[in-house]
Amino acid sequence: MSRAIQGPSAGSQRSVETLVSKLRRRQVVGSRDAALETVLVLRQVVSRAKFSNIDQLVAIIRSVGKRLVEAQPKEHTVGNTVRKVLHHIREEYNTASKGTAASSSKTTYTISNFVLQGQPRKQNVAPKSEATISLKEDDPDDPDSFSRALKPVLMEAIQDVLDELETVYDNVSKNAKDHIHSDEIILTLGHSRTVESFLKQAAHSRSFTVIVAETGPSYKGHEMAKSLSSAGISTFLVPDSSIYAIMSRVNKVIIGAHAILANGGMFAITGSLLAATAARVHSTPIVVCAGQFKFTPLWNLYHDFGALDFADPSSVLGFEEGSLVDKVDVLNPYYDYVGPELVDVFITNDGDHPPSSVYRLIKESYDDDDHEL
Amino acid sequence: MASPESNRFDLHATYRQNLQNHEISPPLAAILALSELVVNSGAGTMFELVQELHDGAEVLKKSTTNPISLNAGCELFIAFVTLFPHESDSFAELKSELMRQGQKYAREAIAYRDKIAELMLGFIKDDSVILTHSYSRVVMKALLHAHKTKRISVYVTEARPRGLGIKTYEELTAAGIPCTVVLDSAVAYVMDKVDFVLVGSEAVVESGGLINAVGSSQIAVIAKAGNKPFYALAESYKFHRLFPLSQYDLPTHNPSILSFRPPQVTAAPSSPSGVSPDHQNEAINGTSSATPAAPSSRTMSADQIACNPDVDYTRPDLISLVFSDVGTLTPEAISQYLVAMFAG
């Protein structure tokens, strides 16, 4: 085709730019909000995009994804959402095009494919009774016919991603009562919405006690404690410094995650590493509640303890301490890196998984060539 | 030496010849040799052909003391042949197709080390200090590749008794990478100075564990104790369907390893036998250490070395990540690939 690969159309370009600047200014924070905003922008991009074959569409989405990821590389869910949308779109495209070009997609059987994919499966080509849409790529007479035919299914695919995000808290909490027993003492920290809804759901059928660590310097634990106690859960608020001392009384540590990495480790709010290490000493189980959109095909490369993401230091040492401010370096990292050996289980919206199987879930939910957007 | 039915084709000689190429490792050499065996075989059915390949693999295995990585290559090729869909018109055509596949794979596989080096690069930060063990082609590739863009310095273990650490030292120094040889017994001493440990592999097994030059296991134990990442590099043709539970389950283990010999009262310490002392001197000269030749009674005799293993098994819980051409994997992920290829 003579048409060059285009970027998103002008209208969607504007919404991309809006989100980019929001991400950059940290007006969108929190992994779920960032993911939601990303899907909405992608939906707009796809609905307005002009393309006449799948590669053009993928290129458009990727270019948008790259802009968003670069705007805020520490908000990992943005990239994850883009990857997930790409994966769904390819899947829809493959099922849609199977009817028209069944023979063309014959994979060659070589030793390297054998290593990658294993034994050749008997491909049971069930004759699809449902009418497949006729797809014609790069139609010179009507370059838009491809996108016109494909768009409805693509919109559905994106809607699936959106639905998953919207129901994530409910789905994570749905088995909450199986994880918490009556009269247990739970330690949590920070204000993770996933954990909050998990505990509240469990409180419908169990009575238990929650100890919330204050989680300085953001003191998000205060909000958490307020919210839990107003839901009728017996709640204690403790300073972070007593986490270790109190651990011997705790039955379970339940915390949230910011991003879950391919090796089963995770980035979680500062203080999580402290709590996890203390829990390990007492062999207290560490349960992490998180939606699968937080699974990130990345590794904790070399910043051992933090995610190299720093918040405003004024909450650690304010400017009223003027005489001190220029004498010390003040760091206020957002996240801790908690290694896979410290986590017992991830409770997700799609089942409970040990850290060692995170890599497999990541392999299933994203396409390998999207790891670098 | 050759299998009886193929007197015109010498499998072992072909294997040796393939190994002459510095880039070709034993599993690839075995795949190439077996693919030539396919076209030279007189087998008329798939069953006969597979049988002949199994016999050929056995011949190759017998010819070496350490068949582990070779075995991985043989098993991969045989599993591939067994499952190859028949679409060819004649059996002869199928055979030549199989040979083409084998050779094509070997050609592709040579580039795997570059791929691994590229994957590894993201994990090496500027000013890293790396500890490596013995000599491994893929580790050399990764280090030399990292050297192009990052400042790295390397400690390498001497890796007695073969002293291959010296080879690593020479190649790295020639490339301008600061490198120091450390004693195998100084690994714990050096560990605190190191950012991570990087080793190659003879094979990666189903448990996610690693088979590599002897000494890797103790380095991994020390790295774990020091809380340092232990990375293994392995091309995917080294994935091997084996599940050793201990060192003594390895196919290389035999009763003479670690055996106790009856004490020989008359053993004259002044007449050491074997090549070891020479080798030792050579190694010392290589590091330009000025100490006079050690008294030969203080070095191991060839008999004593023979009681020691060549390779050891590193448990998966000691390994942080395995870098392979199919991606960066946790040790647990290895079994997924092996099961996909060999099970069911």
From TrEMBL, chain A:
GO terms for molecular function: guanyl-nucleotide exchange factor activity; translation initiation factor activity. It comes from the Eukaryota. GO terms for cellular component: cytosol; eukaryotic translation initiation factor 2B complex. Residues 120-146 are annotated as: Disordered. InterPro entries: eIF2B_beta_subunit (IPR051855), IF-2B-related (IPR000649), IF_2B-like_C (IPR042529), NagB/RpiA_transferase-like (IPR037171). SUPFAM superfamilies: NagB/RpiA/CoA transferase-like. It is found in: Cytoplasm, Cytosol. Its main location: cytoplasm. Coiled coil: none annotated. Keywords: Cytoplasm, Initiation factor, Protein biosynthesis. Belongs to the eIF-2B alpha/beta/delta subunits family. Component of the translation initiation factor 2B (eIF2B) complex which is a heterodecamer of two sets of five different subunits: alpha, beta, gamma, delta and epsilon. Subunits alpha, beta and delta comprise a regulatory subcomplex and subunits epsilon and gamma comprise a catalytic subcomplex. Within the complex, the hexameric regulatory complex resides at the center, with the two heterodimeric catalytic subcomplexes bound on opposite sides. PANTHER family: TRANSLATION INITIATION FACTOR EIF-2B SUBUNIT BETA (PTHR45859). This is Translation initiation factor eIF2B subunit beta. It comes from Steccherinum ochraceum. The gene is GCD7.
From TrEMBL, chain B:
It comes from the Eukaryota. One of its GO terms (molecular function) is guanyl-nucleotide exchange factor activity. The keyword Protein biosynthesis applies. InterPro entries: eIF2B_alpha/beta/delta (IPR051501), elF-2B_alpha_N (IPR042528), IF-2B-related (IPR000649), IF_2B-like_C (IPR042529), NagB/RpiA_transferase-like (IPR037171). Residues 261-301 are annotated as: Disordered. The keyword Nucleotide-binding does not apply. It is found in: Cytoplasm, Cytosol. Keywords: Cytoplasm, Initiation factor, Protein biosynthesis. GO terms for cellular component: cytosol; eukaryotic translation initiation factor 2B complex. Signal peptide: none annotated. It holds the Pfam family IF-2B. Component of the translation initiation factor 2B (eIF2B) complex which is a heterodecamer of two sets of five different subunits: alpha, beta, gamma, delta and epsilon. Subunits alpha, beta and delta comprise a regulatory subcomplex and subunits epsilon and gamma comprise a catalytic subcomplex. Within the complex, the hexameric regulatory complex resides at the center, with the two heterodimeric catalytic subcomplexes bound on opposite sides. Belongs to the eIF-2B alpha/beta/delta subunits family. This is Translation initiation factor eIF2B subunit alpha. The gene is GCN3.
